[in-house]
Specification:
The complex is a heterodimer. Chain A is mainly α. Chain A has 14 helices and two strands, in the order H-H-H-H-E-H-E-H-H-H-H-H-H-H-H-H. The longest helix of chain A is centred in the N-terminal third of the chain and has 33 residues. The termini of chain A are far apart. Chain B is built from 14 helices and two strands; from the N terminus they run E-H-H-H-H-H-H-H-H-H-H-H-H-H-E-H. Chain B folds into two domains: 78 residues, no CATH class; 254 residues, ABC transporter involved in vitamin B12 uptake, BtuC (Orthogonal Bundle), CATH 1.10.3470. Chain B starts with a strand and ends with a helix. The mean pLDDT of chain B is 88. In chain B, helix 3 crosses helix 12 and helix 11 crosses helix 12. Classes of the chains: A mainly alpha, B mainly alpha. Chains A and B meet through helix 3, helix 4, helix 10, helix 13 and helix 14 of A and helix 1, helix 6, helix 11 and helix 13 of B.
């Protein structure tokens, strides 16, 4: 393999990790919420709220970490709105999630209008890891170029995935989380407060969606524009299905998707492809990530239907003590 | 004192209507808070919006123009939602319908085609374009159990890019994001065309699309109430498993509903290019397909109510045009939807404050409920 090909591949992998990270946070958040038995389709709206709140607070305080906290809180509060309808009022979770997505879009369009022109927002820092180059063999060739200098959110993502996997599959609290999503009546009988825990995990999912938004507006594409998530919140919902509710597969899907989002840009710079001379053809390339989501769903939905596993049994079903056993 | 939520056995009609009114008022109230946070005086903003939408001499015509795509796409969404098929990609179906109608008007039919034939061809193309675009998630859902919410929405983003390719590429007029104008025969008749007979119509741009929407609404209302298809849609929506046991072909119904749903949204796109912009251009729809979802939901999936709600939301869009920032209608729509869902549930359930009983009674009560 010659040098340019290698650089091309490295660019895509590195960009995939970067653009995939916000999506990873949102996907993991929705995964946790769904594991608790609540379907929250409002990820897109919560991400936008997180992106705007993060941007605005970072801009006015000068501290991007305060921005991240504000973004997580704003999205968390929105998610509780969905929790109220889905858990306490036992409403249709699909409709409530749709409403949340609309509210988030409209709210951020109105409140964010004055931030659109701002470019110099305090950003989340990049981290230098020069020692990676000192590792023999793979250090200077692979680790250094890929991870030597990346944004801090990337490493947060790397930490989050194993932590969430361990929490869900290896801890007591994780067992309770799975119980309220699979068989809330049994969990209730075992003394677990289903309603309170579901609220908690809806909130956690919301906060992660907020982190996703804030890492978008403060690190990956540091600016605020209306509708800047461009459907990533919906893609996160799709990736949870693709992931079969498993954090590792969620990470895989997010990074592949990140790379595909970046691919059109990279392919346009390849001189022997028609896209370089005719940029309008790039619109077809830009469809790839969205089509990938559909294709990924085609394969994973079939697999899930065949094996009858993956989705939490009580997903989307409100729990009412004594009214119906599930 | 404890709060207890219990279902009501019968929800009186007046109560659900009252709930709707209360929800809209509550939404305007919450929206007002946010407006004032955004630096606007909510009362002034609301009065300006209401005046522009409903009280000026041009208001009825302007509001009808905005209501037309909402009505057609809202009816489309209604068809799918009736069987709890969550087609939220109406915007994409609308865009493809507009694309197909534009293609027919500009490149298929000769410009001297008589007007009725031209418009009919555009309408058929628009319906079919949207219908086929809607059929994709329908087939994926029926054959592979792919979640239609995600797939129909992803296809909306694909549709935007698809249209952009044509309006910036092969169909572009001078490299801008638009095609050249349709020949006059591809324009819907508008009120101002009849200014010779009715002088009051001067400058009024309402077009025949709304009448088409009205006819579609009546047809759907009859079909829903009288036909086997309408009954089966409702049956599937209420309990898909029971419907399947009763011999309803679920897969075929899903595909048919998505076809019709997408077709009506495509017709909305055709009506918009034939009635308003007279060409295909970027961003000609400010999200009509998304607003249509809220319209259909507020109308409780009743086609005749969709007409009324579409008119009101058309007014919201007209009013929103007159104030800054531009996202206000979007925000208010979202809040209205939330308030309506909550009101729905509050009318469906009774919230009671339960006085604390003595310890023994409480214990007895739990025993009885548990047993």
């Amino acid at each position: 393999m010659d040098g340019t090909t290698l650089i091309f591949i490295f660019n895509i992998v590195s960009a995939g990790l970067r653009t995939g990270t916000p999506l990873l946070f949102a996907t993991i958040g929705e995964l946790i919420t769904e594991r608790a038995g609540v379907l929250n389709l409002g990820v897109e709206g919560m991400m936008l709220a997180g992106a705007l709140a993060g941007f605005a607070v970072s801009f006015s305080t000068g501290n991007p970490w305060l921005g991240v906290a504000a973004g997580m809180l704003a999205a968390g509060v929105l998610s509780l709105l969905h929790g109220l309808v889905a858990i306490s009022l036992r409403g249709d979770q699909v409709v409530s999630g749709l409403a949340l997505a609309f509210v988030g879009r409209g709210l951020t369009a109105v409140l964010g209008a004055r931030y659109v022109q701002i470019r110099d927002v305090p950003r989340l820092p990049n981290i230098e890891m020069p020692f990676l180059n000192d590792i023999p063999l793979i250090g200077p060739t692979i680790l250094g170029p890929l991870f030597g200098r990346q944004n801090i959110v990337l490493y947060l993502g790397f930490l989050l995935v194993p932590l969430v996997w361990f929490f869900i599959n290896r801890t007591r609290a994780g067992l309770n989380l799975r119980a309220i999503g699979e068989y809330p009546a049994a969990a209730d009988a075992a003394g677990i407060n289903v309603v309170r825990l579901r609220y908690f995990y809806v909130f956690v999912g919301g906060m992660l969606a907020g982190l996703a938004g804030a890492s978008l507006s403060l690190a990956v594409t540091p600016l605020w524009i209306e509708d800047m998530t461009a459907g990533q919140g919906w893609i996160a919902v799709g990736l949870v299905i693709f992931a079969g509710w498993d954090p590792w597969r969620a990470a895989l899907g997010s990074y592949i998707f990140g790379a595909l989002r970046r691919l059109p840009l990279d392919l346009q710079s390849v001189s022997w492809l028609p896209f370089a001379s005719n940029p309008i053809l790039g619109t077809w390339l830009s469809m790839i990530p969205y089509l990938f989501t559909i294709v990924a769903l085609m394969f994973s939905s079939r697999e899930a239907a065949r094996k009858r596993l993956g989705a939490p049994a009580a997903l989307g079903v409100p729990y009412v003590r004594g009214e119906r056993g599930l | 004192m404890r709060i207890k939520i219990e279902p009501r056995l019968i929800v009186p009609k007046w109560m659900s209507f009252l709930g709707l009114i209360a929800a809209i008022l509550a939404a305007l109230f919450f929206g007002g808070f946010l407006l004032s946070y955004g630096g606007l005086n909510p009362l002034v903003a609301y009065r300006q919006m209401f005046t522009d939408a409903f009280l000026r001499s041009y208001s009825p015509s302007d509001t009808l123009v905005k209501a037309t795509p909402l009505l057609l796409a809202g009816l489309g969404v209604t068809v799918a939602f009736r069987m709890k098929l969550w087609n939220i990609g109406a915007e994409g179906q609308l865009l493809i319908g507009a694309w197909a109608a534009s293609g027919v008007a500009l490149f298929v039919m000769p410009p001297e085609t008589p007007r009725p034939i031209m418009l009919l061809a555009m309408g058929v193309a628009g319906f079919l374009g949207g219908a086929l675009w809607g059929l994709i998630p329908g087939i994926l859902k029926a054959k592979l159990q792919v979640n239609e919410i995600i797939s129909s929405l992803m296809l909306t983003y694909v549709a935007i890019l698809f249209n952009n390719f044509f309006i910036y590429g092969p169909w572009s007029a001078g490299g801008f994001g638009l095609t050249r104008s349709f020949p006059r025969t591809g324009w819907f008749p508008r009120l101002l065309d009849f200014v010779d007979f009715v002088p009051a119509f001067r400058g009024m741009t309402a077009h025949i699309g709304f009448l088409i929407g009205l006819v579609a609404a009546v047809i759907l209302a009859v079909l829903f109430r009288r036909s086997k298809w309408g009954y089966e849609l409702k049956l599937i929506g209420d309990n898909p498993r029971a419907a399947e046991y009763a011999g309803v072909n679920l897969a075929r119904h899903i595909m048919l509903a998505m076809f019709i749903s997408g077709g009506l949204a495509g017709l909305a796109g055709m009506s918009e290019v034939a009635g308003v912009v007279h060409r295909l251009q970027e961003n000609f729809s400010p999200g009509y397909g998304f607003t249509a979802i809220i319209v259909a939901w507020l109308a409780r999936l009743n086609p005749l109510a969709v007409v009324l709600v579409a008119y009101l939301f058309g007014g919201l869009l007209v009013g929103g045009d007159s104030i800054q920032p531009a996202g206000i209608p979007l925000m208010i729509q979202g809040i209205i939807m939330f308030c309506v869902i909550s009101a729905d549930l509050l009318t469906r359930y009774r919230i009671r404050l339960v006085r604390p009983k003595s310890q023994e009674l409480e214990a007895l009560d739990t025993e009885v409920t548990a047993g």
